[in-house]
Amino acid sequence: MNVPTAPGPRNSPLPDVPSVVTVGLPHLTKGFDLAARLDLGTHLHVHGPLAPVTGEQLASLAADISLLGRGGAGFPFARKLRAVADAAARRGTRPVVVVNAGEGEPACRKDTVLVNRAPHLVLDGALLAAEALGARSLIVAVTRDSTEASVRDAFAERGLTDRRIRNRGIRARIVRTPERMVSGEASAVIRAANGGPALPPGRRERAAESGVDGAPTLLSNAETYAQLAVGARLGPPRYARTGVADEPGTVLLTVSGAVALPLVVEAPSGVPLGYVLRLAGAPPLLQGVLTGGYHGSWIDAYAAHDAAVSRASLAFFGGALGAGALLPVGTDTCPLGESLRVAHWLAAETAGQCGPCKLGLPAAAGGLSDVLGGGGQAALESLREIAQGAYGRGACKHPDGSVRFLLSALNAFTDDLAAHVLGGGCGRPTTGVLPLPGASPRESGVPNEEKLAVDWTLCQGHGLCADVVPELIRLGHDGFPTLADVSVPAHLVPRAQRAVRRCPALALRIEQTSARHTTAPAVRALDRRRG
């Protein structure tokens, strides 16, 4: 059987601030040709001043420009703004405004680019909303050092501090969250702002009713606030001159995967998807495109040829705009093998707070591995059953997004799936073109690209390791462990080390491979006798 492997070099993680390309007239990236970062003076020179408006005027503006959240869910911003205003008036309290500028997904950098290069455009929109609502504080959540530094500089340039200041009455502070998929979820950001861990709380609460410190909270991502600032300056008629009628304006896209150069692209809505991919140097022959990021959906090559960059068009072809990430794959790699690598990573990103996430996602990734390993129709049916069992039952949306990604791969690559289920595989290796992070030395204290490995001459199938770290290890049908082919995430390093120490046969170890995946990886032996 042809089991996808990864003999070639993998994509390294995307840079914090990729190169930026603009299609047509820029809105969000205006002035990027003048400076690497627009300080307050340059920002005002490029965009001009911004006059304050009332809450109802701002909500009407957001509705008139059809502003939807750009973080993935696409919720109407005007409805969110009115919900916060109503809750604040009903309770007689001042709300909080939160900018979610953290991107824990390896395939997304658009918000990071905005905050690093145009922080004041983001703050314009956030402060416009804060003043309209009479908010008491402004919070910006970030994940990266570069983003945090840019926000701190922008606060200083505007005279914003964490103390109440005379002319605004708004306190501003930064909240740092880990670079994890689940940490970017709205409830996780609010939990972090309240001093807790940056994880979903396990219960569904509306931020508009009770968010930071129990106050009504307006939370949106960085691009949403930047779009609000652009719309306030241009007005609805001028804003609507760009893009398609029902989704006016521009969109920010992160393009990576099988491309010559990862890019962040600002383009009018409705631009052909193929044109955007060619800007980044995608191959002319594609197998498919992952749209919306790792919680998005795959579309096949035919759909990619006909689709446009808009929510409606991508949805028509089975895709999603989502978090604005586009990842094409060429004909030299196994698309299901690529999906398997991401499925293992998504499983390891679980918050570990509910069964569908902690156990269901590793089981789903293992099920796809069984399919690609020649498990046949029974393995495919088992995979679909596991995936459907995890959907809609999690404490947050991570299981739903992960299952959507996995099932869309089965639907988009039917020929490859049939080759794996009915024959000896598709015949392609898995080259690893979809970017995944390695362990972060700053957070974990361990070198990059550490993976679990088993000495099969010693393994006796006790199965203790799968109990300790089910996100990375599961037991196969023969009772022996099957390991996820991904680097050990920083937050799972302690449990991976515990699994190594608990192995009674001393068969489990952690291997440290170089960033270039040399053929003779160094092995860092752990002292299994230390408790």
From TrEMBL:
GO terms for molecular function: 4 iron, 4 sulfur cluster binding; metal ion binding; NADH dehydrogenase activity. Residues 341-420 form the NADH-ubiquinone oxidoreductase 51kDa subunit iron-sulphur binding domain. Pfam families: Complex1_51K, Fer4_15, NADH_4Fe-4S. InterPro entries: ComplexI_51kDa_subunit, Nuo51_FMN-bd, Nuo51_FMN-bd_sf, Nuop51_4Fe4S-bd, Nuop51_4Fe4S-bd_sf. GO terms for biological process: cellular respiration. The keyword 4Fe-4S applies. This is NADH:ubiquinone oxidoreductase subunit F (NADH-binding)/ferredoxin. SUPFAM superfamilies: 4Fe-4S ferredoxins, Nqo1 FMN-binding domain-like, Nqo1 middle domain-like, Nqo1C-terminal domain-like. Gene3D superfamilies: 3.10.20.600, 3.30.70.20, NADH-ubiquinone oxidoreductase 51kDa subunit (3.40.50.11540), NADH-ubiquinone oxidoreductase 51kDa subunit, iron-sulphur binding domain (1.20.1440.230). Residues 64-228 form the NADH-ubiquinone oxidoreductase 51kDa subunit FMN-binding domain. Its cofactor is [4Fe-4S] cluster; FMN.
